[in-house]
Amino acid sequence: MKSFGKLYLIPTTMGESDPMDVLPQTVRRTIEVIDHYIVENDKTARKSIKAVYPEKKQSELVLFTLNKRTETSEHNDFIKPLLEGTNMGLMSEAGCPGVADPGAAIVKLAHEKGIQVVPLVGPSSILLAMMASGMNGQSFTFNGYLPIDKDEKKSAIRHFEKLSYDKNQSQLFIETPYRNNKLIEDLLQILSPATHLCIAADITLPTEFIKTLKVADWKKLKIDIDKRPAIFIIHKM
């Protein structure tokens, strides 16, 4: 019986930081021996690989690009090396692949084909923000992006606030970085003064900012996280 290769889920840094400050040696050892990758962006993936293992010859790398423009029909072509017995790596643009990441589709396909999936330890902004928030780590939900439409966004924020109260469940979401400051304005206007809000930006970077306060207390501060990757968490007690 023919044996398949293994699909390694390889985490990356979440910005311009030393990979060895946030990634374990397992990641370096894996990149050392793998030449075939499924990535979101060819250029940034090559940069990440070089940062972790400078000795890797770029000419030997075989990269398949997976993003929102990739057709589902291409996925089977991407995993052909796995089916032929070659180990492959799956990399996200930042953080852990498969979580809030298009790579989840490849992981799903790998399971359907009977390919072993090997997740490697690395930084997850969702979990790190939750850990540092002081909110309910026993029950929380990541909701992705809020709606762009003003009225829909307002309804979503109120819905998540009610969920947090009814279920005692922390509600996490993200925003396109250049809309961060506008989202903060919206949150402070819509949420109850007693609701807790955590803002976690630039996680694992030298400019990391993580703070949890009641909305009433946030209103006393001036905060600017424009164009900085951030996670927002709300919880109404």
Describe the protein in words:
The strands form 2 sheets. A 5-stranded parallel sheet has the order 3-2-4-1-5, sandwiched between helices. It is 35% helix and 20% strand. Strand 6 (140-145), helix 8 and strand 7 form a beta-alpha-beta unit. The protein is built from 10 helices and 10 strands. By secondary structure, it is of the alpha/beta class. Pfam families: TP_methylase. GO terms for molecular function: methyltransferase activity. This is 16S rRNA (Cytidine1402-2'-O)-methyltransferase.
Question: Which descriptors would you attach to this protein?
Answer:
237 residues; alpha/beta; five-stranded parallel β-sheet; five-stranded mixed β-sheet; 10 helices; 10 strands; 35% helix
- Distance, first to last CA: 57 Å
Helix content: 25-40%
Secondary-structure element order, N to C: EHHEHEHHEHEHEHEHEEHE
Strand order of the largest sheet: 3-2-4-1-5
Poorly predicted regions are none
